[in-house]
Specification:
The chain is an alpha/beta fold and 367 residues long. It contains 13 helices and twelve strands. Helix 10 runs parallel beside helix 12. It binds pyridoxal-5'-phosphate.
């Protein structure tokens, strides 16, 4: 006999990317930033490590909200902080979707959306992206309570224009969550849609562009009525004292964030070109990773496994539309040079071997 609710029994749960314990890997699998956080952040955290930790943090993280609002040019009342954007995604689904309600997201995208819908016993509606990762005409699902859009998208790295997203916001029934975890690496963003639409929520995180995945700090920007409702659902103290100190210092150092982002964009261009020269197809990325489709006859799974054995971790998803692809986080230029050296060697040897042995398997996997 199980003590769990039926929907929890049925679901498999979210599987995060591997976090190896020994740390000797070149780690290009979970879209972390290869550069260190701002020195100001480390100093602010050290300063916050004092006997004040005896006390609970500010429940609504006021100082963080003021700083976020200042940097984004909005008002603190339109901002809510969370324990990473994953916390905010969970608060949003719990706020708007119950058993039997429709929760919509494109496929392939961030897999957590499906898990969160299943936790609520909601109906998870995955709508396939087109082949080139634009949104299909049937993306809008009538009566949906929550529609998610990671923009730029993971794992494709591709981006939908703010105009197209604004049109969706006007046409859907429920709320539209634009998950902008990677917006700082992109040419555009949807922040201004919050002014125009009372059903749009924008999510940002310090995990990627600010090199603070270990701190767990995300924020949501939306009109005040939505923020006030979400405040009722969150845990009382969902952002701790050290994270509040960190976010203020991180946002104060825009120069360091922007210079790291610029280096990553530069390395992204280099990696994309080098992979294409080798024969991979690379989706146009607006993020800190690229999705590379292997050339015919090369198995993405065996590339992933061999790279791992050589202490280089990239992400392989054994899922429909992704099982011939590798998602590679942009590391430092040196890390990417090492990856490329191994890939050049492996792609040529694997290619010559699998062309003879795996031709049939490769053919049926491709449309
Ligand atoms: C699209 C997307 N949204 C949200 C997150 C989670 O971010 P956080 O670390 O702020 O929880 C990720 C993490 O990789 C992501 O890819």
């Amino acid at each position: 006999m199980s003590y769990f609710r039926n929907n929890i029994e049925r679901m498999s749960g979210y599987t995060p990317g591997e976090q190896p314990k020994d740390g000797i890997y070149i780690k290009l699998n979970t879209n972390e930033n290869p550069y260190p956080p701002s020195p100001g952040v480390l100093a602010a955290i050290k300063e916050a490590v004092n006997e004040g930790l005896r006390l609970y943090p500010d429940p609504i993280a006021s100082a963080a909200r003021i700083k976020i609002a200042e940097i984004l040019g909005t008002q603190p009342g339109r901002v809510m902080a969370g324990n990473g954007s994953d916390d905010l995604l969970s608060i949003i689904v719990r706020s708007f979707a119950g058993p039997g309600d429709k929760v919509v997201f494109p496929y392939p995208s961030y897999m957590l959306y499906k898990t969160l819908a299943e936790l609520q016993d909601s109906v998870a509606c995955a709508v396939d992206f087109t082949e080139d990762y634009t949104l299909p005409d049937d993306f809008i699902v009538k009566g949906a309570k929550v529609t998610f859009l990671a923009n730029p998208n993971s794992p494709s790295g591709t981006m939908i224009s703010p105009d197209a997203i604004s049109k969706i916001a006007s046409e859907i029934d429920g709320v539209l969550v634009v998950d902008e975890a990677y917006a700082d690496f992109a040419n555009d963003n949807c922040l201004s849609l919050v002014e125009q639409h009372d059903n749009v929520l924008i999510l940002r995180t310090l995990s990627k562009s600010y090199s603070l995945a270990g701190i767990r700090l995300g924020f949501c920007i939306a009109q005040e009525s939505l923020i006030q409702g979400l405040m009722k659902v969150k845990d009382s103290y969902n952002v701790d004292r050290l994270s509040i100190a960190a976010v203020i210092a991180a946002l104060d150092d825009q120069i360091s964030m922007k210079s790291h982002v610029e280096k990553i964009r530069e390395t992204r261009r280099y990696l994309t070109k080098s992979l294409e020269d080798m024969g991979f197809s690379v989706y146009p990325s607006q993020t800190n990773f690229v999705l590379a489709r292997c050339m015919k006859g090369v198995s993405a799974l065996s590339l992933y496994q061999t790279l791992k054995a050589r202490k280089i971790l990239v992400r392989y998803f054994g899922l429909r539309r992704l099982d011939d692809c590798l998602r590679i986080t942009i590391g430092t230029r040196e890390e990417i040079e090492i990856l490329l050296k191994h890939l050049r060697e492996l792609a040529s040897t694997t290619h010559s071997k699998t062309v003879h042995t795996c031709n049939h398997q490769t053919r049926i996997r491709r449309p």
